[in-house]
Amino acid sequence: MIKAGIIGATGYAGAELVRILTGHKDVEIKWYGSRSYIDQKYAEVYRNMFQIVDEVCMDDNMEQLASQVDVIFTATPQGLCASLVSEEILSRTKIIDLSADFRLKDVGIYEEWYKIEHKAPQFIDEAVYGLCEVNREAVRSARLVANPGCYTTCSILTAYPLAKEGMIDMNTLIIDAKSGTSGAGRGAKLPNLYCEVNENIKAYGVAAHRHTPEIEEQLGYASGEKIAINFTPHLIPMNRGILATEYASLKKDVSWEEVKAVYDKYYRNEKFVRVLDRDVYPETRWVEGSNYLDIGFKIDRRTNRIIMMGAIDNLVKGAAGQAVQNMNLMFGLDESEGLDLVPVFP
Amino acid sequence: MIKAGIIGATGYAGAELVRILTGHKDVEIKWYGSRSYIDQKYAEVYRNMFQIVDEVCMDDNMEQLASQVDVIFTATPQGLCASLVSEEILSRTKIIDLSADFRLKDVGIYEEWYKIEHKAPQFIDEAVYGLCEVNREAVRSARLVANPGCYTTCSILTAYPLAKEGMIDMNTLIIDAKSGTSGAGRGAKLPNLYCEVNENIKAYGVAAHRHTPEIEEQLGYASGEKIAINFTPHLIPMNRGILATEYASLKKDVSWEEVKAVYDKYYRNEKFVRVLDRDVYPETRWVEGSNYLDIGFKIDRRTNRIIMMGAIDNLVKGAAGQAVQNMNLMFGLDESEGLDLVPVFP
Amino acid sequence: MIKAGIIGATGYAGAELVRILTGHKDVEIKWYGSRSYIDQKYAEVYRNMFQIVDEVCMDDNMEQLASQVDVIFTATPQGLCASLVSEEILSRTKIIDLSADFRLKDVGIYEEWYKIEHKAPQFIDEAVYGLCEVNREAVRSARLVANPGCYTTCSILTAYPLAKEGMIDMNTLIIDAKSGTSGAGRGAKLPNLYCEVNENIKAYGVAAHRHTPEIEEQLGYASGEKIAINFTPHLIPMNRGILATEYASLKKDVSWEEVKAVYDKYYRNEKFVRVLDRDVYPETRWVEGSNYLDIGFKIDRRTNRIIMMGAIDNLVKGAAGQAVQNMNLMFGLDESEGLDLVPVFP
Amino acid sequence: MIKAGIIGATGYAGAELVRILTGHKDVEIKWYGSRSYIDQKYAEVYRNMFQIVDEVCMDDNMEQLASQVDVIFTATPQGLCASLVSEEILSRTKIIDLSADFRLKDVGIYEEWYKIEHKAPQFIDEAVYGLCEVNREAVRSARLVANPGCYTTCSILTAYPLAKEGMIDMNTLIIDAKSGTSGAGRGAKLPNLYCEVNENIKAYGVAAHRHTPEIEEQLGYASGEKIAINFTPHLIPMNRGILATEYASLKKDVSWEEVKAVYDKYYRNEKFVRVLDRDVYPETRWVEGSNYLDIGFKIDRRTNRIIMMGAIDNLVKGAAGQAVQNMNLMFGLDESEGLDLVPVFP
Questions:
Q1: Mean pLDDT of chain B
Q2: Each residue of A114-130: b (16+ CB within 10 Å) or e?
Q3: Does D192 contact B196 at a Cβ distance shorter than 8 Å?
Q4: Nearest residue to B175 via CA among B266, B255, B247, B90
Q5: Which chain D residues touch A206 with a CB distance below 8 Å?
Q6: pLDDT-derived band of residue A54, with 50, 70 and 90 as boundaries?
Q7: What is the predicted pLDDT for the residue at D60?
Q8: CB D291 within 8 A of CB D344
Q9: Considering only Cβ atoms within 10 Å of each terminal Cβ, which end of chain B, N or C, has fewer?
Q10: pLDDT at residue D49, rounded to an integer
């Protein structure tokens, strides 16, 4: 039985970790960390867990935690994980960090986009970017995994095969993404009130969103060049789900079948990536509650562009589900253990 | 491995059956019946099932089905199950009927409220009303189970202990219920369009809803008297969930603890009924996707009434989940097999 | 031109006042009071007002305001209006208070239910309860109007004619009300976050909501007796709208036509109260954005109860619209001036 | 008093026309045409109109109508207006067609994208594309106005000044648009059911949506070249609103102020186009219920692209409001008569 601790267990991503790990036969949650609710019963914060989870919330003591668990999930604001991690801790436990602290290899870019000083740059090189479908082998042996962001998971994987195979002009890539509101977190902020979000759509962080350099770095590795893209997130009135609509110019004239073959080359054996049939486009409702990424695409002969679309549940494949997928790899389990979550519809 | 067939597999309740049975380790779905989509791939109708369910939809041939499966679920409009069932079929397979055909013991009341002739009244006596928490033993040995309605499951169980113990004046009982829109089914009807339901609440079937006699019959059994109640359903803009707010006059002065003790007497060992703590009231979000019924109550000294509240997911405890719970009992399995569904929030 | 000042102009009710008064040909808003946004442009807080309202937000200085305007609207938390009002202010300007400070005639009940000391009990007697359809004449000559609450407006007017005519047993009255989320205000509180409200329904303030004594007092006046009722509010996932479903035992056997005649007696000439046809029930979508109250009812012979239903837009007839209706009366204008708001659907 | 007739008065756009014209002081609706509801009271179809509209629905007899009214609005499916219009009709009345029949000047493109034969190509040349801000003078003298589509109004006006001034490379233009569900109409179709739309986002008509050639034609006129763009619409769970996010490469290095000056040049005196301040982006909630188009933009130095965003209420500026704006011009009224609709929030 793997002993797991969660720091930040009362945010939406942390709560989703609790939901998933509760159904994972090889894991036992030993620590429900939540600074805001110390000593309060977890099931009073998330009443869906009444009679399922009996524990109370604990403080964020990573050192103490490291001596009690095999793996720590940090589902916390940027900067916290980097401020707590140490060689001693990593020598005793594995860490899967759901924040952005170890996602970017260039600490300068991190500090520029996140406006905070990185407190543990010495671990950046070691950290493995936990996009299982791309870095599976590295994840298996990692001590410290940087769990990808929600927008980035969806955006990168949707374009990855074409980037890798050099089929698209990377500098024409434009990603227009739409997210449900759970991605904004559980903080009591006016813009996230029901009446402010409901019956509305807006773009935000235009040409400035922090997931931009993460996408650029990873798709840059895939395509073998330094790239600059446009990434525009939008907030839409639903709880869960991200849809990324991606536009790029094709480098040469290709058929739907040829593109499909490229997707299949990379994802045919990926349980959690489903490449859809011709003229079928992903919708967030079909992946809600599950760890799937659904991908569809259309070639537009008139403009010589390809429109790629990907849909995930931001809290599962975009956060907690992918974290568990990483954990499974790190502990030699079946990669899909605990993740046989059939999408819930309606 | 239990072989199961579903007639009406492409309605919302049928689809939820598919979702739940797909995760049930002892069941294999052999027949996805759907008159509207014969020969079409099930996963093209419900794309969440892409790469999970490969089968195509079949016609509603109950005789043929009876020779192939151990249990048939009918998630169909009223009248269909009664028109298809026969002694021969029941001698070969078990039936769990999610329609209202066998819920009411008085065929006259059925025909009065449903405005259709009952085609198989000879099986009404035999049919067991599948409210597991009340009729568990009878369900175990049943060939034909009438799976309770969504509103009724929630309404009955919320008041049952107090009715049974004679604590409330049954003829003062008023049930004001609110349901998400999946309860209205997947038919393409104007009143169920997004823009008609969204940003709206309405009552419907006022003093005329068909679930009324079902509640009256069952709570009448509990209280040992013939009762007449008011039941008012409302449609609210959400996918899943029913909340029943029930009002009744208390027969004598009782404390919160005394009422709680009565609830505990009946539900302490019931896995799927959670009686909440003092001053905590049920909310549909805390049971969404799960088979739980959450119950809370408040005594109002000023009016000498008790306000009881119950919340379920109408598609799970109110339909497919309860059907599987019944199936588990009928086949001697652990009652919660396949139903360890942690509520999904948000 | 009537000069108006608003204290609390950046709450939802205050903003709705701005919207309505902006379209009122006889009114000019001179003061956009908002403690939280002093010196900030109003249109930066409510961007729908960009290029419509150019003013900045001001402090809550009622004395200064009294010297500049003909009428002050206070759309503020309980207690504020009572703490600011004085004889000198009332001698110079009229006040329409959208808070509860002057709604209850019994200061003891106010202090018991609101848990605050009343700072200006000397004005309670003078204050007129601004339910125009009931107290029209008194409103015309009032200096201080207590604008009714949202739930109360809907609940009282829906039952008023039957209470007044003695047709129902007042102590059997049960009001089950459902409200959109704008009624919860614009405060940045966790329970009002999008993901907490969306896909959920809950009861709250069960047997304890502050609108209870207000309803009891007013319907007590109507029926000529002291009454105690049950009032249960529920929060539902939509922006605007209240539906009240009200149950009461009929004192004698009456027909639909007889009840309709009673409603017509009181409301036939009321522009803003629409009594619906037989078997038509109110829905909040049909009054959204308007000052209408829609009423429907059904008699249940089986239980001898009548089910009355009323629907309003909580921000209009339940707050700002009714306040303007009161203002029109106080200033001798056509009662519907500025309130010819056609309901917006969808 | 202008006499108006509406063909298709019971669709969402038709109903919005009724709402707006009901508040227009110079117009009287004489004909509520609706094939589906002939002889039924209009207020039974749209109950918001109870006690506001007393008329019954009429058939689609354009000839009869032409003899009775000064202007006919056709809010009908593609093809109907073209099949009914004639020289005789146009000699007696003006027509504002909300369908696509007369929007495209090239009948071949119309027939290719709409898959129907055009029944009245002889009027295509005469028809004026009713985008008031662009074609104001031509509209004034038109007999037949082609009211622009919802997506197109928003998409074209958002990019128009930059296209006209040659600031962007037109063939890099990508428009990613998101629409509320009222745009899908009031037909009882499965994909538009509440549970299918709620908690979901999807792209549709990818590289194939019929509004594409309309945008290309109009922006082609503006830029003086033939262009091909990508236009991708998405359906999101809200009633009203369209947000268009548009990407294009800048032809030269320009500052925010320079771009703002270009927008101001075209829109400074346009009442219904609001160009927002720096770093403010449009949101559909701020225009809901009104005739405004809000525009914001951001220059991305990293990619040398400009991201332009526009938001409208699809039923107002995208349909009925713009139709009334056109009518005002055609009849020599103040262009904003009846359109002083303050956006409704929340």
A1: 97
A2: beeebebeebbeebbbb
A3: no
A4: B247
A5: 281, 298, 307, 309
A6: very high
A7: 87
A8: no
A9: N
A10: 98
Do A19 and A291 form a contact (C-beta atoms < 8 A)?
no
Contact flag B298-C206 (C-beta cutoff 8 Å)? yes
Give the whole-angstrom CA distance, residue A292 versus residue A345: 14
Which residues from chain D sit within 8 angstroms of residue A299, using beta carbons?
A: 207
For residue B200, the chain C residues in CB contact (below 8 A) are 238, 241, 283-285
Locate the chain B residue with the closest alpha carbon to C175: B176
Q: C interface mutation test: which of D12, D25, D27, D48 has the most C CBs within 10 A?
A: D48
CA–CA separation, D311 vs D314, rounded Å? Answer: 9
Torsion of CA D240, C239, D47, D42, to 10 degrees: -10
CA-nearest residue to D186 within chain B is B190
Say if CB C287 and CB C241 are below 8 A apart: yes
pLDDT at position A60 is 87
Cβ-Cβ contacts under 8 Å, B199 against chain A: 199
Q: Which residue in C has a C-alpha nearest to residue D293's C-alpha? A: C48
User: Cβ of A237 and C186 within 8 Å?
Assistant: no
Using alpha carbons, select from A243, A257, A214 the residue that is nearest to residue A101.
Answer: A214
Per-residue pLDDT tens, chain B, 346 aa: give them: 999 999 999 999 999 999 999 999 999 999 999 999 999 999 999 999 999 999 999 998 899 999 999 999 999 999 999 999 999 999 999 999 999 999 999 999 999 999 999 999 999 999 999 999 999 999 999 999 999 999 999 999 999 999 999 999 999 999 999 999 999 999 999 999 999 999 999 999 999 999 999 999 999 999 999 999 999 999 999 999 999 999 999 999 999 999 999 999 999 999 999 999 999 999 999 999 999 999 999 999 999 999 999 999 999 999 999 999 999 999 999 999 999 999 999 9
Q: Could you check whether the bond before residue C161 is cis, i.e. omega within 30 degrees of 0?
A: no
B12·A346 Cβ contact <8 A: yes
Question: Active-site residue among A132, A150, A154, A195?
Answer: A150
Give the pair of three-digit tokens for residue C163. Answer: 């209470």
Asked if residues A340 and B23 have their Cβ atoms less than 8 Å apart, the reply is yes
Q: Write down the pLDDT at residue B185.
A: 96
B–D: how many Cβ contacts below 8 A? 56
Reported residue count of chain D is 346
Helix B12-22 and helix B321-330, axial crossing angle in degrees, nearest 10: 50
Distances (CA, A) of C141 to C101, C128, C146, C330, D85: 19, 9, 13, 6, 59
Say whether D239 and B193 touch across the interface (CB within 8 A).
no
Judged on CB neighbours under 10 Å (0-12, 13-18, 19+), A302 is exposed
Q: What pLDDT sits at residue C60?
A: 87
CB contact under 8 A, A238 and D199: yes
Q: Which residues contact D61 (CB under 8 A, 6 or more apart)?
A: D33
CB contact under 8 A, A188 and C193: yes
What percent of chain C stands above pLDDT 90?
99
Helix (H/G/I), strand (E/B), else coil: C319: helix
Shortest CA distance from D240: residue in chain B: B195
Mutate which: B46, B190, B193, B315, vs D, most D CBs within 10 A = B193
Give Cβ neighbours of residue D54 (< 8 Å, ≥ 6 apart): D41, D43
Q: What is the pLDDT of residues A274-326, one digit of tens each?
A: 999 999 999 999 999 999 999 999 999 999 999 999 999 999 999 999 999 99
Q: Tell me how far CA of residue B145 lies from CA of A6, B74, B104, B128, C328, in angstroms.
A: 44, 10, 12, 5, 63
Q: With an 8 Å Cβ cutoff, are B201 and C283 in contact?
A: yes
Q: Write the DSSP string, A54-81.
A: -PBBB---HHHHHTT-SEEEE---TTHH
Closest approach of C141 to chain A, Cα-based (Å): 37
